[in-house]
C-alpha cells in the first residue's frame, strides 16, 4: 500500500490506472466470452430401442411433470384458465414424439416459467424415461413426427457407466455413429440450406442471435445432431418447421428431405469442430463487433502504453 | 563522450553525402530539418500510430495482391481447404482461400492487413480527438485539420471497399447495403447503382472495380494527403502544451536527430508488434468460416467493421416516419438521412468546426500552444457530446448482439438508442462542461494557494490544517497560461458613444454575439490572480463563481503554512 | 518542403558563420557531416549544453546492456520466424500442410508470435536506447512568424499582377475566353467516358424472371416443391424459380431478385391487409414473399412462426407475414412484394405471375406504374 500511496500522485498514475482498467476489460472479455454452453446431459443408453417403451411409466411421468400445464388430456391450459397459478401450456395434440424428445432432452421441459423462452438446461430425465413420455404423448394425443432414431443423439456420460471400459466403449460407439452420420452428405447443398434457412437466426457460426420481443435463436453448438433434426421437424417455439417427406421415412421429399437434413447437420458439426485457423482466441466467433472491441481495448491501449513509455518524463532530468 | 572533437564522418558517408549535395545543395536544409524539434508528449504520438499502421497496410496489402484474384467468375472450389470442396464460389473468394491455406504466412498477412485497418481508423479517431480537445486545429492549422478530415473519410471508404473484396458472406452484404443506399437517392439512384455495378446487383464487375479503387486510386490519394499533412506539420511545427519556456513563439522538445528519430523508430516497431501480435493470436474476419457470398443468404449478427458501425446503427434506429412520396415518386428518408445525412453531419461538422469556432470567438490569432481541454469548456463539452452521439450510433449498430448478449428485447434496444441519441449528448455536454469548470476553479485554487501536500500540521492553537505547498514554477506557468489562450469575448453591446456597431445589429451579428456569450460566459476568470497569494486575495471575481469555495474557511491555514513553507518550495515540485 | 521565410529556423539559434565547403564541385574529404564549426561551445554535443541533459555514465552502461539484450531477443525471434516458416513446408505430395485448420492455427501463432516478439524487442531496445543512452533534450526552436511581412506580400502581389498583365491573360479576352471554352469539353470527357460502365436502369428493376407456371424449387437442392411438402403449419423454406438452363443455374443477379420465402400458416391467421386478390395468390395457407428487404436489400428471413413476423437481421425491419408483409417495425417503408402462387396439375407449386411490386430496396420510381 505504501508503494501505491507514494506513487499515486505520480504524473503517470492516472494513465496507469486507465491502462490497467482497459487491459482488465479486454483480457476479461476474451476469457469470459468463449465460455462454453451448458454441458450435455443425457442418459447414456445409446440408441435405445423404442420398441421397449413403457407406456405406464410414460403416463406416470407425464402426469407428474407435464399435466399441470398441458392438462391430463394434453389439450393444454390457456393463460386465462390458469389464472394466477401461471401454469399454462400449449395443446399437445398431434405434436408427436420428436417434439417431446427435443423439449425434454434439451432440458427446456419441464419448465417453471411458461411466459419466457426456455434456455437449454441439463435434461431432467434419462433416455428411457424420455422415450416413455414421448411414446405416451404420441399414443395418447395423436401422432406427429417420430424420434429420428438413426440420427446420433445421446452422447454417453461417465456417471451412467459402471466401469471406465464400458464408458469408453459407449463413447466410441457414439463417435463412430456420429462420424458415420456426418461422413457423407453434399457439402454444397448442406451449406446452401444452412445459409438460406438457418443462418439468419442462428448466425453463420451457429452461435444464435436475437429475435423480437426478447426471444432468441439458441446456440446450435450445444445441440446433438438428433436435437437439430428434431427441431427442424417440429419447429419449437418461434422456429419454423422444415418437414420431411410425407410419403415414407427417409424419402426424398418434404421441404428438406432427411438426407438433405443430414448434409445440413454435417455442415453445422464440421463448422463447429473446426479449430479457429486465425488464432487461439476465436472471439467466440462473434465476428466484427468483438474484433472492433478488441482492436480498441487491447490494440490501441497497448500501443498507447508504448507511446507513454517512450515519451514518459524521467525524474532525474526534470 | 569526453573528447571535445566531433568525430570524422566515415568515408562512405562523406562520399554519398557529397554525391547528393553536389547535385542538390542540401547541406543547409538537411541540417535544419534534422534539427527540427518535436514536443515530447505521448498524445502527440497518436497520429504516428495512424502513419505506421498505414505503412503496414501498404506492405501487407502488396503481399496480398500477389495472389488475390479480383474476379467474380464462378467456379466450384477444388482447393486445399477440405470443408469447402465442391462449393460454388467466386474466384475472388477462392483466391482468398488460397492465400489463407496454401500460402505460408498468407493467413498471418491477411490478419495483419485487417487488424492494421482497424487500428488505422481507430488511431485516426483518437488523434483527431486529441487535436480537437486541445484546440490544435486553430489558426494556422485549419488546413491540416481539413486534410485530416479527408483522410478519415477516405480511410472509411477504403476500409469498406477492402472489406468487400474477398466476396465472403458479410462482405457481399456490406456491398448490398451500400447499393441499397445508392438506390434510395432520388432521380440518380438507379443510374448510379447501374453504372457502378455494371447493371443489377451484384453483377460481375463490382469487385474488379472496387479492387482498382482499393489498391490504387484511394491509397494514392491517401498517400498524397498524408504527405501533405506531414509536410504542413513539418513546416508549421507541432503544437505544444504550455510549460516553462514553451510559448507561442518558441517550441521546446526533442530534436529529430538523433533523439526523435530513434523514439519514432522504436514506436513504429511497437505499433507493428502489437498488430502482428493480435494477428498471431486473435482470429479476425475468418472468411473461410463465413462461406462465400450469395445474395440470398444472410446471417444473424451481421456487422460491418467497427468504423462503419455508426452508419449501420443510424440505419437501424432511424424510423420510416419521414418517408415521403411525391406524385408517386418515393423519397425514402429512412435510408437517405441515416445513410448519407448522418455522414454529412459528422464530416461536415468536423470540417466546419475550426471556422465556426473562429467566427464565434472572433479569435484570429495564430495558436501554437495547445489548449488544456478544461480551459475551453464549451468546446470540450461539445466534443464529449459528439463522442456520445457517435458512440451511441456505433453501439446501435450492434444492437442485435447487445440484445442477445444482455438479454434485452430487440425493439427495446432500438428505442433506447432512438431516445439516447437525443438525451445522451445533452447530458454529456452538461456534465463535461461542469467538470471543466470545476477543474478551472481548482486550478485557480492551486494557483492562489499552492497544492495540498498531504502533510497535516498542527497549529499552535491546536487546529489541524493540511499544509499547502507552493506549486512548481512549471505548474504555475501551466496554470497562468490559461488567460492568454481563451479570450473572453464580451458581448458587444455598444461602443463608447453608446452607438451600436452596425455589425452587431444584423441578425448574424446578434446570433454571433449570443454564441460568443454562450461560448465564454461561464469561464472562470483568472484576472488578477497572483500565484501563491491566496491569503491576500479575497477579490471580487470570487463572486460570480457559484458555490465552489468550500475550502474558504481554512484559507488562513493555507496562508500561514505557505508562508512557513518557503524553504521547501524548491524541492516540493509537483510535476 | 521546409520553411524558408525565416532565417532563424535552426534549433540552437546560434548565428554561426556557415562556411560552405560543401556544394562546391570539388567537395573534398571534410564535407557534410564533419564540416561544422561551433567555436563558442565547450560542450561537444550538437545542441546547446543547457538544452542537453546527458545521462550519467553508469546509466548509459546499464542502458547499453539492456538494449543489447533486447536486440539479441529480437535477433533470436527473427531466426525463430524463419524456423517456423520453413517447418510448415508442403508435404511430399506438395500439398500444403497449413490447409488443415489446426496446423494453420499453429503456424499462424508461431510465425506471428516470433515476428511480434522480434518487432517488440527492437522497439523496446530502441526505447531503452532513447531513454538511457541518448541525452534528454529540451531544445528550443522558434515558430515561424505569421504572416509574411507586408513588404514581402506587396512585392509578391505586385510581381504577380505585373506578370499576369504582361502575359495578356487579363488584357486579351478573346484568347482567354476561347481557351476556357476549349477546356470545357475536355473537362467533361472523363464523365462522358464513364457512360458505358453500365446499362441504363430502364425498367429492369421492376420485373423479375417469375412468370405464370414457373416451378418453385428449394434453394440449395434445386428440388421442385409440392404443396404437401409444406403441409405442416409453421413451415418455411427459402426458394428460387427453376432455372431454364439446368447446367448453369440462375445467375446471381436473378437469384438476388427472385428469391422468395415460402411460408405455410393457418389461413385463419391472415389479417385485414390480405384482400381477395392477395388471398387468391396463396394456396391453402402457403404464401410467398420476396426475401429481399425493401429497406436496403438484405435478405429478410427471420420468420417467427408464432408471431408471423419476418425480421431482417441487418436493420431489423419487421414485416407481418400474415398481413401482406406490412411493415410493423423498423426503417423499411414498403411491404415485401408478394409472389402469386398456384399449384399445377401435378401438385407442384408454381408462380402465377410476377411479384406484386418491385423487389428490393426502394428506389425513386419503384411505386410508379408504367
From TrEMBL, chain A:
It holds the Pfam family Cytochrome_CBB3. The keyword Metal-binding applies. Keywords: Heme, Iron, Membrane, Metal-binding, Transmembrane, Transmembrane helix. SUPFAM superfamilies: Cytochrome c. Residues 53-141, 185-272 form the Cytochrome c domain. GO terms for molecular function: electron transfer activity; heme binding; metal ion binding. The chain crosses the membrane at residues 12-32, 293-312. InterPro entries: Cyt_c-like_dom, Cyt_c-like_dom_sf, Cytochrome_c_Oxidase_Subunit. Gene3D superfamilies: Cytochrome c-like domain. PANTHER family: CBB3-TYPE CYTOCHROME C OXIDASE SUBUNIT FIXP, CYTOCHROME BC1 COMPLEX CYTOCHROME C SUBUNIT. This is Cystathionine beta-lyase. It comes from Nocardiopsis ansamitocini.
From TrEMBL, chain B:
One of its GO terms (biological process) is respiratory electron transport chain. Its EC number is 7.1.1.8. It catalyses: a quinol + 2 Fe(III)-[cytochrome c](out) = a quinone + 2 Fe(II)-[cytochrome c](out) + 2 H(+)(out). Residues 16-242 form the Cytochrome b/b6 N-terminal region profile domain. The chain crosses the membrane at residues 49-68, 112-133, 145-165, 177-198, 210-236, 256-282, 329-356, 376-395, 415-432. It is found in: Cell membrane. Its cofactor is heme. It is an enzyme of class 7 (translocase). Residues 477-505, 530-575 are annotated as: Disordered. It comes from the Bacteria. GO terms for cellular component: plasma membrane. Residues 551-575 have a biased composition (Polar residues). Keywords: Cell membrane, Electron transport, Heme, Iron, Membrane, Metal-binding, Respiratory chain, Translocase, Transmembrane, Transmembrane helix, Transport. One of its GO terms (molecular function) is oxidoreductase activity. It is a multi-pass membrane protein. This is Cytochrome bc1 complex cytochrome b subunit.
UniProtKB/TrEMBL annotation, chain C:
It comes from the Bacteria. It is found in: Cell membrane. Keywords: 2Fe-2S, Cell membrane, Disulfide bond, Electron transport, Iron, Iron-sulfur, Membrane, Metal-binding, Oxidoreductase, Respiratory chain, Transmembrane, Transmembrane helix, Transport. The chain crosses the membrane at residues 66-86, 106-129. GO terms for molecular function: 2 iron, 2 sulfur cluster binding; metal ion binding; monooxygenase activity; oxidoreductase activity, acting on paired donors, with incorporation or reduction of molecular oxygen. Its main location: membrane. Residues 257-350 form the Rieske domain. It holds the Pfam family QcrA_N. Belongs to the Rieske iron-sulfur protein family. This is Cytochrome bc1 complex Rieske iron-sulfur subunit. It comes from Nocardiopsis ansamitocini.
Amino acid at each position: 500500500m505504501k508503494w501505491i500511496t507514494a506513487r499515486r500522485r505520480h504524473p503517470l498514475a492516472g494513465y496507469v490506472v486507465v491502462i490497467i482498467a482497459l487491459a482488465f476489460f479486454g483480457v476479461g472479455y476474451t476469457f469470459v466470452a468463449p465460455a462454453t454452453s451448458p454441458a450435455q446431459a443425457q442418459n447414456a443408453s445409446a440408441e435405445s430401442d423404442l420398441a421397449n417403451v413403457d407406456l405406464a411409466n410414460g403416463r406416470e411421468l407425464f402426469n407428474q411433470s407435464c399435466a399441470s400445464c398441458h392438462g391430463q388430456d394434453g389439450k393444454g391450459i390457456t393463460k386465462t384458465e390458469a389464472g394466477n397459478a401461471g401454469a399454462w401450456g400449449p395443446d399437445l395434440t398431434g405434436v408427436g414424439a420428436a417434439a417431446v424428445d427435443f423439449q425434454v432432452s434439451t432440458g427446456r421441459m419441464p419448465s417453471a416459467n411458461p411466459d419466457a423462452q426456455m434456455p437449454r438446461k441439463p435434461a431432467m430425465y434419462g433416455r428411457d424415461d424420455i422415450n416413455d413420455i414421448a411414446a405416451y404423448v404420441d399414443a395418447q394425443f395423436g401422432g406427429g413426427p417420430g424420434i429420428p432414431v438413426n440420427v446420433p443423439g445421446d452422447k454417453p456420460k461417465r456417471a451412467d457407466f459402471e466401469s471406465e471400459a464400458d464408458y469408453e466403449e459407449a463413447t466410441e460407439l457414439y463417435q463412430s455413429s456420429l462420424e458415420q452420420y456426418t461422413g457423407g452428405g453434399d457439402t454444397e447443398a448442406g451449406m446452401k440450406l444452412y445459409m438460406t434457412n438457418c443462418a439468419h437466426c442462428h448466425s453463420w457460426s451457429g452461435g444464435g442471435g436475437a429475435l423480437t420481443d426478447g426471444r432468441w435463436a439458441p446456440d446450435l453448438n450445444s445441440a446433438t445432431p438428433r436435437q437439430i433434426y428434431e427441431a427442424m421437424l417440429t419447429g419449437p417455439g418461434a422456429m419454423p418447421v422444415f418437414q420431411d417427406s410425407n410419403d415414407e421415412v427417409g424419402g426424398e421429399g418434404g421441404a428438406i428431405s432427411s438426407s438433405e437434413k443430414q448434409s445440413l447437420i454435417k455442415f453445422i458439426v464440421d463448422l463447429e469442430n473446426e479449430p479457429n485457423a486465425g488464432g487461439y482466441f476465436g472471439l467466440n466467433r462473434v465476428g466484427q463487433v468483438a474484433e472492433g472491441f478488441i482492436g480498441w481495448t487491447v490494440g490501441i491501449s497497448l500501443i498507447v502504453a508504448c507511446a507513454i513509455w517512450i515519451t514518459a518524463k524521467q525524474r532525474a532530468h526534470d | 563522450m569526453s573528447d571535445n572533437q566531433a568525430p570524422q564522418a566515415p568515408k562512405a558517408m562523406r562520399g554519398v553525402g557529397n554525391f547528393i549535395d553536389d547535385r542538390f545543395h542540401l547541406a543547409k536544409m538537411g541540417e535544419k530539418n534534422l534539427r527540427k524539434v518535436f514536443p515530447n508528449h505521448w498524445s502527440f504520438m497518436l497520429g504516428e500510430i495512424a502513419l505506421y499502421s498505414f505503412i503496414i497496410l501498404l506492405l501487407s496489402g502488396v503481399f496480398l495482391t500477389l495472389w488475390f484474384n479480383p474476379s467474380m467468375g464462378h467456379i466450384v472450389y477444388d482447393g486445399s481447404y477440405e470443408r469447402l470442396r465442391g462449393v460454388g464460389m467466386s474466384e475472388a473468394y477462392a483466391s482468398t482461400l488460397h492465400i489463407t491455406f496454401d500460402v505460408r504466412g498468407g493467413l498471418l498477412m491477411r490478419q495483419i492487413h485487417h487488424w492494421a485497418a482497424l487500428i488505422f481508423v481507430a488511431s485516426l479517431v483518437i488523434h483527431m480527438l486529441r487535436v480537437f480537445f486541445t484546440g490544435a486545429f486553430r489558426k494556422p492549422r485549419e488546413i491540416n485539420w481539413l486534410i485530416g478530415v479527408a483522410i478519415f473519410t477516405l480511410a472509411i471508404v477504403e476500409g469498406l471497399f477492402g472489406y468487400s473484396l474477398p466476396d465472403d458472406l458479410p462482405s457481399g452484404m456490406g456491398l448490398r447495403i451500400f447499393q441499397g443506399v445508392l438506390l434510395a437517392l432520388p432521380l440518380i439512384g438507379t443510374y448510379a447503382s447501374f453504372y457502378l455495378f455494371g447493371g443489377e446487383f451484384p453483377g460481375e464487375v463490382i469487385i474488379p472495380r472496387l479492387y482498382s479503387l482499393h489498391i490504387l486510386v484511394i491509397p494514392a490519394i491517401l498517400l498524397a494527403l498524408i504527405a501533405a499533412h506531414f509536410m504542413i506539420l513539418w513546416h508549421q511545427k507541432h503544437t505544444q502544451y504550455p510549460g516553462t519556456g514553451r510559448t507561442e513563439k518558441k517550441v521546446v522538445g526533442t530534436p529529430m536527430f538523433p533523439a526523435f528519430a530513434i523514439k519514432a523508430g522504436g514506436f513504429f516497431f511497437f505499433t507493428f508488434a502489437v498488430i502482428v501480435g493480435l494477428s498471431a493470436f486473435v482470429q479476425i474476419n475468418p472468411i473461410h468460416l463465413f462461406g462465400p457470398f450469395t445474395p440470398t443468404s444472410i446471417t444473424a449478427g451481421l456487422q460491418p467493421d467497427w468504423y462503419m458501425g455508426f452508419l449501420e446503427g443510424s440505419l437501424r434506429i432511424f424510423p420510416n416516419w419521414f418517408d415521403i412520396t411525391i406524385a408517386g415518386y418515393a423519397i425514402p428518408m429512412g435510408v437517405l438521412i441515416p445513410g448519407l445525412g448522418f455522414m454529412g453531419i459528422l464530416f461536415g461538422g468536423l470540417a466546419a468546426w475550426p471556422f465556426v469556432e473562429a467566427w464565434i470567438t472572433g479569435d484570429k490569432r495564430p495558436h501554437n500552444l495547445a489548449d488544456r481541454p478544461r480551459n475551453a469548456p464549451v468546446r470540450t463539452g461539445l466534443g464529449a457530446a459528439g463522442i456520445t452521439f457517435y458512440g451511441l450510433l456505433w453501439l446501435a449498430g450492434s444492437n442485435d448482439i447487445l440484445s442477445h448478449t444482455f438479454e434485452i428485447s430487440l425493439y427495446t434496444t432500438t428505442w433506447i438508442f432512438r431516445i439516447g441519441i437525443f438525451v445522451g449528448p445533452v447530458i454529456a455536454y452538461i456534465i463535461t462542461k461542469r467538470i471543466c469548470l470545476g477543474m478551472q476553479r481548482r486550478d485557480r485554487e492551486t494557483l492562489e494557494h499552492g497544492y495540498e501536500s498531504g502533510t497535516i500540521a498542527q497549529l499552535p492553537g491546536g487546529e489541524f490544517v493540511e499544509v499547502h505547498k507552493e506549486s512548481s514554477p512549471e505548474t504555475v506557468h501551466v496554470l497562468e497560461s490559461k488567460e492568454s489562450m481563451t479570450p473572453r469575448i464580451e458581448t458587444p453591446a455598444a461602443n463608447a458613444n453608446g452607438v451600436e456597431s452596425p455589425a452587431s445589429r444584423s441578425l448574424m451579428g446578434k446570433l454571433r454575439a449570443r454564441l460568443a456569450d454562450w461560448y465564454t460566459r461561464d469561464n472562470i476568470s483568472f484576472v488578477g490572480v497572483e500565484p501563491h497569494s491566496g491569503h491576500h486575495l479575497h477579490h471580487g471575481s470570487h463572486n460570480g463563481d457559484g458555490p465552489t469555495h468550500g475550502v474558504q474557511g481554512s484559507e488562513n491555514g493555507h496562508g500561514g503554512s505557505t508562508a512557513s513553507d518557503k524553504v521547501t518550495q524548491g524541492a516540493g515540485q509537483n510535476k | 518542403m521546409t520553411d524558408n521565410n525565416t532565417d532563424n529556423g535552426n534549433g540552437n539559434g546560434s548565428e554561426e558563420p556557415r562556411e560552405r565547403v560543401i556544394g562546391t564541385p570539388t567537395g573534398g574529404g571534410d564535407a557534410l557531416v564533419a564540416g561544422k564549426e561551433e567555436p563558442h561551445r565547450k560542450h561537444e554535443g550538437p545542441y546547446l549544453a543547457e538544452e542537453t541533459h546527458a545521462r550519467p555514465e553508469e546509466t548509459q552502461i546499464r542502458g547499453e546492456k539492456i538494449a543489447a539484450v533486447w536486440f539479441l531477443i529480437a535477433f533470436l525471434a527473427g531466426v525463430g520466424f524463419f524456423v517456423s516458416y520453413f517447418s510448415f513446408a508442403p508435404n511430399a505430395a506438395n500439398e500444403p500442410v497449413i490447409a488443415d485448420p489446426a496446423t494453420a492455427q499453429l503456424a499462424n501463432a508461431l510465425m506471428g508470435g516470433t515476428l511480434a516478439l522480434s518487432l517488440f524487442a527492437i522497439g523496446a531496445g530502441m526505447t531503452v536506447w532513447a531513454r538511457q543512452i541518448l541525452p534528454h533534450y529540451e531544445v528550443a526552436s522558434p515558430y515561424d512568424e505569421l504572416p509574411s511581412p507586408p513588404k514581402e506580400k506587396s512585392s509578391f502581389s505586385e510581381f504577380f499582377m505585373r506578370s499576369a498583365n504582361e502575359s495578356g491573360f487579363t488584357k486579351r479576352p478573346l484568347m482567354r475566353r476561347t481557351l476556357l471554352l476549349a477546356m470545357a469539353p475536355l473537362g467533361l470527357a472523363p464523365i462522358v467516358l464513364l457512360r458505358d460502365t453500365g446499362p441504363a436502369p430502364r425498367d429492369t428493376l421492376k420485373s423479375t424472371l417469375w412468370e405464370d407456371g414457373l416451378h418453385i424449387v428449394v434453394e440449395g437442392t434445386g428440388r421442385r416443391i409440392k404443396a404437401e411438402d409444406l403441409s405442416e403449419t409453421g413451415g418455411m423454406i427459402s426458394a428460387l424459380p427453376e432455372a431454364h438452363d439446368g447446367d448453369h443455374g440462375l445467375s446471381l443477379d436473378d437469384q438476388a431478385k427472385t428469391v422468395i420465402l415460402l411460408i405455410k400458416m393457418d389461413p385463419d391467421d391472415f389479417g385485414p391487409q390480405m384482400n381477395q386478390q392477395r388471398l387468391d395468390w396463396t394456396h391453402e395457407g402457403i404464401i410467398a414473399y420476396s426475401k429481399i428487404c425493401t429497406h436496403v436489400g438484405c435478405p429478410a428471413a427471420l420468420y417467427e412462426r408464432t408471431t408471423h413476423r419476418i425480421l431482417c437481421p441487418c436493420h431489423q425491419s419487421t414485416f407481418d407475414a400474415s398481413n401482406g408483409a406490412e411493415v410493423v417495425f423498423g426503417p423499411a417503408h414498403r411491404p415485401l412484394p408478394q409472389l402469386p402462387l398456384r399449384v399445377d396439375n401435378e401438385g407442384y407449386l408454381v408462380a402465377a405471375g410476377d411479384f406484386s411490386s418491385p423487389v428490393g430496396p426502394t428506389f425513386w420510381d419503384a411505386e410508379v406504374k408504367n
